[in-house]
């Protein structure tokens, strides 16, 4: 028989730890480290570091989202869910799904396309400029090399979907943090 008993403090700490870990990673990777590295490293170095770090970021985020969904579902039996809890479990499910999609597909394809583009850029002696914005040489490369132009288009599409997945997970985690804060009895 399902009960609506309060979970133990240890379970609450685990839930908060996994939610805050994912949230903290998202803020750091999305807004701080990417901007700092992109502004201070050569483009290929920045891309290489991202291609090494992002699989960990995406998979750890997926794991945190899955654990949060599992903990919440175990503490809130489906027979006893109210409307607010149903919304929260849906938010966790969306976060898990989108994070997994990003980890298993969009993130990896984006890194693979970027690696191919780097090889073409290196063959033209490009890619060592520092900064987040394309230089004129890379813009000209779009016109010179049709394979590069096609890869650049694919990169925009996959990177765009990967970014949307990341933003969706951030929104889900923001809603989850709001839900948790709204249910704190004391601070």
SSE layout and pairing:
Elements: H1 9-40, H2 43-75, H3 83-123, H4 136-144, H5 146-182
* Low-confidence region ranges: none
Number of helices: 5
Chain-averaged pLDDT: 90
- N-to-C SSE series? HHHHH
Shape: elongated
Number of strands: 0
% residues in beta strands: under 5%
N-end to C-end Cα span = 33 Å
Structural class: mainly alpha
Share of helix, binned: over 70%
Chain oligomer state: single chain
Computed Rg:
20 Å
Q: Major β-sheet, in short?
A: none
How would you explain this protein's 3D organization?
This protein is an all-alpha fold and 187 residues long. It is 81% helix and 0% strand. It is built from 5 helices and no strands. Helix 1 runs antiparallel to helix 5 and helix 2 runs antiparallel to helix 3. The longest helix is centred in the middle third of the chain and has 41 residues. The protein is elongated, with a radius of gyration of 20 Å. The two termini are 33 Å apart. The model has no long low-confidence stretch (mean pLDDT 90).
Q: Main attributes?
A:
187 residues; mainly alpha; 5 helices; 81% helix; elongated
Task: State the gist of this model.
The chain is mainly α and 187 residues long. It has helices at 9-40, 43-75, 83-123, 136-144, 146-182. The chain contains five helices and no strands.
């Amino acid at each position: 028989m399902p009960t609506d008993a309060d979970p133990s403090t240890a379970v609450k700490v685990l839930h908060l730890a996994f939610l805050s870990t994912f949230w903290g990673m998202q803020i750091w990777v999305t807004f701080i480290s990417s901007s700092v590295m992109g502004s201070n490293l050569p483009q290929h170095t920045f891309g290489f570091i991202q291609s090494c770090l992002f699989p960990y970021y995406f998979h750890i985020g997926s794991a945190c989202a899955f654990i949060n969904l599992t903990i919440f579902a175990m503490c809130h039996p489906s027979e006893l869910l109210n409307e607010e809890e149903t919304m929260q479990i849906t938010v966790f499910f969306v976060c898990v799904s989108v994070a997994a999609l990003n980890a298993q597909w969009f993130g990896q394809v984006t890194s693979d396309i970027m690696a191919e583009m780097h090889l073409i850029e290196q063959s033209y002696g490009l890619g060592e400029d520092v900064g987040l914005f394309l230089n004129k040489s890379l813009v000209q490369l779009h016109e010179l090399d049709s394979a590069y132009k096609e890869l650049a288009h694919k990169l925009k599409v996959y990177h765009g979907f990967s970014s949307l997945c990341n933003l969706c997970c951030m929104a889900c985690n923001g809603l989850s943090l709001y839900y948790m804060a709204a249910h704190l009895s004391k601070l």
